[in-house]
């Protein structure tokens, strides 16, 4: 018994020393803060796009990585919010960040809540495939709708959205927008981090492992899933709003199946079930696509596809899984030493 | 009035009738043993009570309410706890977190997001672990516990929310003799607050802790009564005891 005790304490000590995620997080923040100092305008704009897409990646990670909802429709929330922001600018002349971005988040939230109500909150718990197909269909339908609807600009989308304003400042793409996007990503990331490491996050961890079992403790599992799905919709919507302002125009693909699938790949590649993995996945794939497209203009999609396939087949936990143990990935929500080191 | 009252419950799986009109009552603070040969429908009855299976026919009342159509989470909130036959701790979570999971189930979404009850529940988690001799393993993953300890952890989890009725499906399966004895000891004190339905193949164990025994055979109750009554029951001896 004494021996077992010793070794468990040692293991505890080791685990505590080997927390990798905080290092990745700090390193990534440092890199993102420093980048504009060494990059030219083109790359600053490129990385801004990555930061915005990272929000979209986070939104998918929350649903699939943390609550086991396979959503193939994240672009729907992203794109719909982008269109609403574009319309606000075009038709109502509203371009204030403080108005447009909350509206974007609300649009994403409301759409996701609506879908959750249909897909998740039925009488019997839905299958993964049902939800995947349902979200996919939503995304596909929205894209078709945008393509065909004259008011939304049809195939061409809505061009030349007025630039976003923050008080008296006008935000064009560049260093200012970069830091704004970074700031928003940081805030959203921290809020997500708090959530997935809270008692609520513990329930999500349980849902991932034994969804059935949790209902017998008294949890309304589908209700939890609907909450996460709606929150993720809000984040995707926020990302869409930012994206619309950053690019200056919106087009039907922003809601479509291709982007929805791309988000899935980002997160699977970077590391599903860790927030940092979503961010790393977006950055890695966006950068790799760019470089590959440059070098192998003809068959880069194939190269990228193969790379993804390799990672997903041999590392189900993604790139981050190379450094982060399962134990750290799942996390711990309390410990016998009490609350002071609970949220490890 | 019984705490739990199962009336004429029928459960049919396709061609197979797993339960054919079972009546089954559990009084408050009663320890009730449920025995019967393999495949006699014990687990199916437990699942019908907990809400994991829906009876084809019949009704289930618990604590003065008709729960026949209630989903499992509502039954749990009503004071019903179950440990299934197959151990189902959450293996990738720590032992501590397993218990916390069971304890915090009644918190609202918003309070869980703010971790509002984490500090307040700490003592209850530690108490539950202490009762089942798991304090030393609190920070280990539940998946690496021995089989017996996983069973204890599950009982601790089922008891943590202070249910009115605890359903245990073969809690001592795979335990050593010593672990069984300890399990019996650990269960005795819950009598003060809670009723128990326990499925066991170990008849000595049942005899030691239960007030009442019900015997199932091929989906029907063939005898129910005190330990003595059951031991002297002709039909039970023919159908069941002789076979074991
Ligand atoms: N989900 C199911 N689908 C079909 N048949 C089932 C199902 N669950 C149980 N059965 C059948 O119902 C009968 C009763 O099963 P049950 O598990 O209740 O028996 P038991 O008394 O718990 O047996 P044991 O002592 O082996 O645990 C068995 O014949 C079993 O094969
Ligand atoms: Mg059984």
Oligomer: heterodimer
The helix tally of chain A amounts to: 13
Number of extended strands of chain A: 2
Order of helices and strands of chain B: EEEHEEHEHHHHEHEHEEHH
Ligand list: adenosine-5'-triphosphate, magnesium ion
Q: What is the string of SSEs of chain A from the N terminus onward?
A: HHHHHHEEHHHHHHH
Bulk shape of chain A: globular
**Strand adjacency order, main sheet of chain A:** 1-2
Overall pLDDT metric of chain B? 90
Structural class, from helix and strand content of chain B? Answer: alpha/beta
The computed structural class of chain A is mainly alpha
The proportion of strand residues of chain A reads under 5%
Helical coverage of chain B, percent range: 25-40%
Separation of termini of chain A?
27 Å
Give the number of DSSP strands of chain B. Answer: 10
Briefly characterize the structure:
The complex is a heterodimer of chains A (344) and B (244). With 344 residues, chain A is an all-alpha fold. Chain A has helices at residues 2-17, 21-38, 41-67, 74-92, 97-119, 128-148, 175-196, 199-215, 221-247, 257-270, 275-295, 300-314, 326-330; strands at 164-166, 169-171.
How is this structure best described in words?
- The complex is a heterodimer of chains A (344) and B (244).
- By secondary structure, chain A is an all-alpha fold.
- Chain A has a domain at 35-256.
- Helices cover 71% and strands 2% of the residues of chain A.
- Chain A contains 13 helices and two strands; from the N terminus they run H-H-H-H-H-H-E-E-H-H-H-H-H-H-H.
- A two-stranded antiparallel ribbon of chain A has the order 1-2.
- The model of chain A is unreliable at 1-15 and 340-344 (pLDDT under 50).
- With 244 residues, chain B is of the alpha/beta class.
- Helix content of chain B is 36%, strand content 25%.
- Chain B contains ten helices and ten strands.
- Chain B has a six-stranded mixed β-sheet, with helices on both faces.
- In chain B, a hairpin with a 2-residue loop joins strand 1 and strand 2.
- In chain B, helix 3 crosses helix 5 (118-131).
- The chains are: A mainly alpha (344), B alpha/beta (244).
- The structure holds adenosine-5'-triphosphate (ATP) and magnesium ion.
- Magnesium ion (MG) binds next to helix 1 of chain B.
